[in-house]
Amino acid sequence: MDQVKIGKFIADCRKKANLTQMQLAEKLGITDRAISKWETGKSLPDSSLMLSLCDILGITVNDLLSGEVIEMDNYNKELENKLLELVRQKEESDKRLLKLELVVGILSMVVLFVPILIGALLPMEDWLRLVLVFSGFIPAFAGFFVALRIEQMAGYYACGECGHRYVPTYKAVNRAMHMGRTRYMCCPQCGKKSWQKKVLTKE
Q1: Which of 57, 64, 94, 71 is nearest to 2 (CA)?
Q2: What's residue 80's pLDDT?
Q3: Cα–chain-centroid distance for residue 49?
Q4: 63 and 113 share one domain
Q5: Which terminus, N or C, of the chain has the lesser number of Cβ atoms within 10 Å?
Q6: What CATH number does the domain containing 15 carry?
Q7: For residue 126, with 0-12 CB atoms within 10 Å meaning exposed, 13-18 middle and 19 or more buried, which class applies?
Q8: What confidence tens digit (pLDDT) does each residue in 59-85 have?
């Protein structure tokens, strides 16, 4: 999927619709900086915004993902290819995010325990030892929250009762008991609580 081509296509369609980046951003409820990133090929529109964006610009999702208006003769084949590619790219992105979560978690543990070990092993004033120990808590806990946010966004959780796969809120993930990436949460589909595994695919 050519992000630069898609970005230029978004910019052309926006201009044809006589909209500024700011006006388009206001219609979508986002910042004009996000529009700029799309149009320069630095990122793609979030899937939750694609239908609204296409409606405003008068194009189809298939046109958007192709970076050009698709003729009806090739529409179904192009649509299928683009959807499959989009799913594959999301899975790859989620895999990278979960690897990043692991790295952030390990670094947070190191930042937390290294000052504690230094404070416990080296001779120093008590006040200095306290400052050293607590200096590791702030960045470590910040890292833990970042890792949790990454886990919440990447992939889906599969309900142990009905099998429904969904992305829970950060609050739900944060409050849930867990064993690794498996969390005890309430499914929005069946309303039952169960141990829900992290999965990468929607189906």
Answers
A1: 64
A2: 67
A3: 14
A4: no
A5: C
A6: 1.10.260.40
A7: exposed
A8: 988 888 888 887 766 666 666 677 777
Name the one residue in this structure whose structure tokens are 């898609």: 6
Residue 174 inside a domain? The answer is no
- The answer to whether position 42 is within a domain reads yes
pLDDT digits (tens, 9 = 90+) for 137-146: 888 888 988 9
Contact 193, 140 (CB under 8 A): no
Based on the structure, what is the number of domains in the chain?
2
Model-level pTM? 0.54
Q: How is residue 70 annotated by DSSP? A: P
What is the per-residue pLDDT across 93-147, written as a single tens digit (0 to 9) for each? 888 888 998 899 899 888 888 888 888 888 888 888 888 888 888 888 889 889 9
Domain that holds residue 145: 93-154
Is 145 part of a structural domain of the chain? yes
196 forms bridges with which residues in the sheet? Answer: 183
| CB-side neighbour CA atoms (13 Å) of 153 | 16
What is the edge-to-edge ordering of all strands in the sheet holding 177-179? Answer: 165-166, 156-158, 193-199, 182-186, 177-179
Beta strands in 66-181 (DSSP E): 156-158, 165-166, 177-179
